[in-house]
Structures are given as C-alpha cells and as structure tokens.
Amino acid sequence: MIVLVAGSSGLAGSAIALAFENQGHKVIRVNRNVVDLLDLDATRNLVLDTKPDLIVDAAARVGGIGANNSFPVEFLVENIRMQTNLMESAHATKVKKFVFLGSSCIYPRECSQPIKEEYLLTGPLESTNSAYAIAKITGIELVKSYR
What we know:
Layout: E1 2-6, H1 11-22, E2 26-30, H2 40-50, E3 54-57, H3 65-70, H4 72-92, E4 97-100, H5 130-146
Parallel strand pairs: 1-2, 1-3, 3-4
C-alpha cells in the first residue's frame, strides 16, 4: 500500500510514517519542504503524482499559548486551508482512504475525563487555542461530508 503522510516531520506524523514503513508499506513523507499544503494546485499535483491508497493528515500549524494568542487568524485559516486542500485533492483523485488527526485541544475546556468522542461540541473551548480547535472541528465535519 502507498501511504502519504502529511505532517510527517511532526510528533504524530513521524510516528505514523515509521509505523507504516515498519509494516512494509511505501510511505510518502510530506512536510512543508516537500509541498506547500496551503497551495491547492501543488497539493493536488502531489496526490496525482504519488497516487496514494491512503492519506494520513497529521499536518497542522501548531504553537503554544503565546503563538495561539498572537496569531489566531493564521491558526484558523492555515489549518482549514491545509486540511481542505488535502481532502479536496483526495476526493478529486479518488483516494479511497483518508485519516484526519485532531487532538484533545478540540474538546471543551472543562471536558470530563477520559475524553470520549461524543463530548465534542458540548461546552466552551479553551480560549487560548479556539482558532486551532475550530479549524480541526471544521475538518471533522468536512470528512463526514465527503463520506
């Protein structure tokens, strides 16, 4: 199987890529040095050229509290754009499998533990990372819509 891992230099993406490689799959590691996922044409061309069976979207603009507070527009817009470009490209090129990663940051600030999927959107988000959270929640809805 050919697996395209977007965000392959990050914490989750690098572990996922390594796991697929260890299972004998061909892995296409994608980070910002390989393709600008903010560019729809470049993203679509990458997917067309590599013809993956599976895309794992572990790509995201992430930062700490200071960055989140200083650049909320960038966190919101860039995360929505990257994930949308990957999903549109997968759909347009008929990639059958797509895995989209989020994080615990998308759940309400006062979320019961352990976190369960059904807790999503049941309360206010942490204000310091709400732009990231909203972008990722948008991605979840987009994945559902493509299904």
